[in-house]
Design goal:
Protein name: Zinc-binding dehydrogenase
Number of helices: 2
Radius of gyration: 14 Å
Distance between the termini: 21 Å
Order of helices and strands: HEHE
C-alpha cells in the first residue's frame, strides 16, 4: 500500500482497525463505475459538487 502522506504506523493502524471491524470501509464508497465508463465519468468524479468521498473502479 502507499499514500503520499501516510506513514507505516498509519497503515498499521488502519489495517488493525479493519481487521477488528471497527470501521466499515464500504460506507465510504459513494461512487462506483465500470472501467469501460471511466473516461466518460472521470471529470465528474473530480468535481467537488459530485460529493465524492471514495470512488471505486470495477475492473472485473
Amino acid at each position: 500500500m502507499s499514500s503520499r502522506n501516510a506513514t507505516q504506523e498509519d497503515f498499521e493502524h488502519v489495517i488493525q482497525t479493519l481487521q477488528q471491524g471497527t470501521i466499515q470501509p464500504a460506507l465510504f464508497i459513494t461512487h462506483r463505475t465500470p472501467c469501460q465508463q471511466l473516461p466518460d465519468v472521470f471529470s465528474s468524479l473530480l468535481d467537488p459538487t459530485s460529493n465524492v468521498i471514495k470512488a471505486v473502479v470495477d475492473f472485473s
